[in-house]
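Table S2 (continued). Query chain:
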Amino acid sequence: MVKRTVSVPGPRRLLPLRRRSPRFIGRPESVKEARDWLDRALCVEGTPQETADTALLLLSELASNSVEHAPDRTAVPGDFYVGAHFFHCRVRVEVRDAHARRPVLRTVTPDTLAESGRGLVLVNALADCWGRFRSILGPGMFFELRWGTPEPVAPVVPLQRKGR
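Corresponding output:
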């Protein structure tokens, strides 16, 4: 007699919303699609409205940069992925190009009459934390927003080392 384990096909389980990272086509209309996706994710997770509004604005800036500054020589110009990671009282949103090019941060003083050039200034002003990241799928940009920081349950006391 041979003992075997047989997998029984069942309903396909979707991954939780917090782990999805959809791909958007590199065109200006896709920035709105990415905002709509993030808005649904923030709503499902119960993010406060003010934090959600800020996250949508900052996502628009990073996604627009990805579309606008994509190289023309690639097969997928401007395509980008958006990832949202939810933690207790914190959200991290990542934007990564489909062609895995490294983001370049430039110091620019925007002209007061210019229509562009203020995206990362907004991200810097409104995000609690932001920057570049690297992953096995390629580099990208991220920002983090926090809300309702909980009070510590007990005071934090440093540990005493033995012998000192």
